[in-house]
Amino acid sequence: MANETVSPEALPRASSAAPAKARRVLPIIEIVVLAIALVVPFVLEDYLTIFATRVLILALFALSFDLVWGYGGIMSFGQALFFGCAGYGVALLGRDLDVTSILLVLPAATLIGLTAALLIGGFLLLGRNPASVIFVSLGTLTGSYAADRLARGWYYLGGQNGIPSIPPMSLGQHDIVEGLEFYYLALGILIVCYLLCRFLVRSQFGLALTGLRENEARITFFGYQVQHLKAIVFALGGAIAGLSGGLYAFHEGFVWPNILGVVFSTQVVLYVLFGGSGTLIGAIIGAVVIEAASFWLSNTFQEIWPIILGVLLLLVIMFRPAGLISLIVSERERVGSFGQPGRRGR
Amino acid sequence: MATGMVTAEAPPAGRGQAAAAEPLLAAADIVKVFGKLTALNGAYLTVAPNEFHGLIGPNGSGKSTLMKCVAGAETPTTGSVRFDGRDITAASPAERARAGLSLKFQITSVLPALTLYDNILLALQARTSLAGLVFSRTRGVLHDRVMGMLEQFRLADRAGEPASALSHGQQQWLEIAMALAPEPKLLLLDEPTGGMSLEERRVTGELLQPIRAHCSLVIVEHDLDFIRDICDRLTVLDQGSVLDSGTVQHIQASPQVQEVYLRRA
Ligand SMILES: Nc1ncnc2c1ncn2[C@@H]1O[C@H](COP(=O)(O)OP(=O)(O)OP(=O)(O)O)[C@@H](O)[C@H]1O
Ligand SMILES: [Mg+2]
Considering CB atoms only, which of A207, A220, A221 is closest to B121? Predict the structure, then answer.
């Protein structure tokens, strides 16, 4: 991907008649976002760094949904299930087994998310007939709802109150507590996951996913095992959601049933639709903008902020169905190119 | 009955195939019922290796449905489909593709958002392993074949443009190129020249000729001149049944076929 950047003089004035190569803005956005993320803790007050860390963790969660919906075309309306299962899982590890080492709990969270997604994805996606979008969204939604109810009713999981005062995550003797340290940990993990996703969606596998999303029926006739492709993306999404859930549990120090539920599942859908699904950076921007707006609005307009936020979201989704990112990134650039046309026999 | 026909008349371009060899494709006694409508009623289609076979018939006679039953887009209500020595009646579309079947539907379905190059690459890489796809292992290897395909269909200079920028006729060429890219043993084309100018049709015929060396073709067309020019044998469908099947000369002389076409004309 990186090696197809065009030299500026090779750029004709972009017009519909000569759509050859448009200016590429996605890498610029990525670098700007990264630069901002790196300096934010030095600009913000401490309590805001803690807030920003939470936003990074939610952005990681948004990334997982974007992979599943924006790239795999699978409407997972219950993505919080994987986030919450992993959150509860590591909370129990910490509470009951005193396992808090980052080297154990984060892989465990990822594994829990992955396993849950494999089970649900296998059930929903690998049936005899291709599953419809409605079937999958209702199936995942139901899973999320059921898990929420189960957690509320189960004494071992703390019922309505969830599991409070989870011990902090540790590395050797050192405790990783909220603040600068946790911020950069979350940022590092987000960057690694982002790069992995980016590698994947720009690979030939990503091309297959694009085909799947654009015309699923057609590509089965090329010989693609469409259901397998979907199950893999769904499982990866589950793994990343699990990782973010694990981070969240230790950052907040508690878990409660809402992080499994339908409202939280919908929230991540909004992040991604708002920011722009099908671009990885769009998911991140969506999460950051919505969380920052809610934070600011809830301080400034204490009573009516949910309404203002709702109207904002509605406006974007109505007038910019491809999300905020589509204001600056063209459809062509969003889809991108996977191979590089050129002479034969290089 | 279907196999009998092939042995009776040896296929014209049997290149090294024994005369009595099994046909490449043998769809027999195909019945397809949609609700109350019987779209196919005991239809058959037999294609020898390297044969160009035309499938003709009035609108609604079941041509597309028969093609779909062969490709796996529809499952026949009863009947059997054998391809390359295997029974594929119950095989999934992906399995059929891997066995060497390739098709272009009546409705053009290139991927408009992708570049021409990526459309072809998408078709070509379908047999790459999962790990190969994730690590883009075949991208380099397939480059020459992608460009070769585009050159063959006179689209190479537009390789980097999105398919949506092509004219309707060029989109059809792109789709034929996509169908041919994986080097299938049998190519099914449903009305490939729909919406093309006369000149584009002529070129399409030219573009198809060279594939005879390695591939059989079943083509549905309303343009009878076009069909006559490129096909060795024809099958005529009418109301879901085969009216007649044989060489072009045989069909042209057939009184039943004359009657159907005269009745409509
Ligand atoms: N999925 C379907 N459901 C119900 N009826 C169908 C379906 N597909 C085809 N048919 C019907 O089956 C009959 C045969 O259709 P088919 O498309 O095979 O005809 P055709 O010979 O390809 O016609 P044309 O020349 O117009 O393309 C038609 O009466 C059509 O309406
Ligand atoms: Mg038809």
Answer: A207
The complex scores an ipTM of 0.85
The parent domain of residue B175 ranges over 107-183
Residue whose CA is at the smallest distance from ligand 1 atom 6: B34
B133 found inside a domain: yes
The answer to whether residue B147 neighbours chain A at the CB level (below 8 Å) is: yes
Q: Are residues B162 and B121 in the same domain?
A: yes
The residue ranking higher by pLDDT, A10 or B60, is B60
Question: Is the residue at B155 inside a domain?
Answer: yes
Q: Which residues of B79-115 are buried (b: 16+ CB within 10 A; e: fewer)?
A: bbbbbeeeebbebebbebbbbbbbbbbeebbbbbbbb
The CATH number for B225's domain is 3.40.50.300
pLDDT, mean of residues A239-260: 94
- Ligand 1 atom nearest the C-alpha of B58 is 25
Closest Cα to residue B24, out of B102, B103, B84? Answer: B84
pLDDT of residue A305: 81
Residues B28 and B61 in one domain: yes
End-to-end CA distance of chain A: 18
* Model confidence at A128: pLDDT above 80: no
| Same-domain status, B33 and B96 | yes
For residue B43, report the phi and psi dihedrals to the nearest 5 degrees: -75, 155
Structure tokens at B23: 């046909």
Alpha-carbon distance values, B210 to A21, B180, B213, B221 (Å): 34, 11, 6, 19
Task: Give the gap in angstroms from C-alpha B205 to the nearest C-alpha of chain A.
Answer: 23
How many domains is chain B partitioned into structurally?
A: 2
Instruction: Decide if A176 contacts A170 (C-beta within 8 A).
Output: yes
